[in-house]
Amino acid sequence: MHNYIKITVLLLIIGLLVSYKNQITKQELTIQVENNQNFSRNEVVEIPYEKFSGLLKSTDQENIRVKKQGSQDYLITQWMDSDSDGVTDALLFQVEVAANSSAKYVVLIDSKNPVKETKAITFSRLVPERTDDYTWENDKVAFRTYGPEAQRRIEENEYGGTLSSGIDLWLKRVEYSIIDKWYAKNLETEGYYHMDHGEGYDPYHVGKSRGTGGLGIWENDSLYVSKNFIACRTLATGPLRTIFELDYAPWSDYNVKETKRISLDLGCNFSKFEITLNAEKEVPNYTIGITLHDGKGKVKLNQQEGWFRHWESINNTYVGEGIIIEPNKVQKAFNHQSQIPDQSQVLLVAKPQEVLTYYAGFAW
């Protein structure tokens, strides 16, 4: 997970080698990636754009290549403009580093040899053909949440609506993108993606719960939540990281204005949530939830280390949902049981803050 479990990136060498015989200028940047954990890591790393200034003076971004030292195969890369200001911020590439070890990667210029394509990518988009879900995925997992048209249909008693700001989970069996295919098939056969056709399916029920990672405010033994998002912006689709933002109408008695920035990296089971929050009155807390569905799953809360999980059986398969957050942001966490449908949930109560950052995701 980018930015939470830290990978140290050290810029070692910027070498300028000139062959006067062939009049060829070669520039390379060697990057050492350190893994200080006791398990191997396969993750996306982000290198600030300014570190490549020496390489970019004589070429454009399209000719930058990255490979593991000693390998001849180029890695998939992605240039990022995280704030959509038209200026490139960083270069992404995926690294593989053994436990308590380091690995070196070489960044160079090559205008002749392309990077091999891969089916394993990240992707996200608004889906107006299925009311207006916003759906995102990578090679391991997929998620969705719901927009204003889905809300309008519920409020006006029309068919096909959903009223929820919870996070839905799609269980994938394949590395390639399935969003476009599953929604297209659902237009032909309603409920298509609720059945497993060999690529996975959506058996996860959200309803009015928080799903996995939805936000709220816990006060007087009650959970207050927003309605559906009212606007969305896709900032990046991949292939290594997808990023988008969702805006919500002011909600609760505190008139909270909320913008979710959600990102998902290739190879990662957890989405990163960076939520900007502004309220007219002082808010007591912000609460992140995981639905308990029928209440038969197993809950584990580790407030000291900042992780919270639920392990349950769904249609004879097992799904483990989790939230990870910096421990010092947490006030308390508890298993809330309710007789009201969709309201039995793991609730993580976080201290009020202007930007709330956490990870939420699953495995199955």
From TrEMBL:
A Pfam family assignment: DUF4861
Tell me the domain of life.
Bacteria
- Give the protein name, as stated in the record: DUF4861 family protein
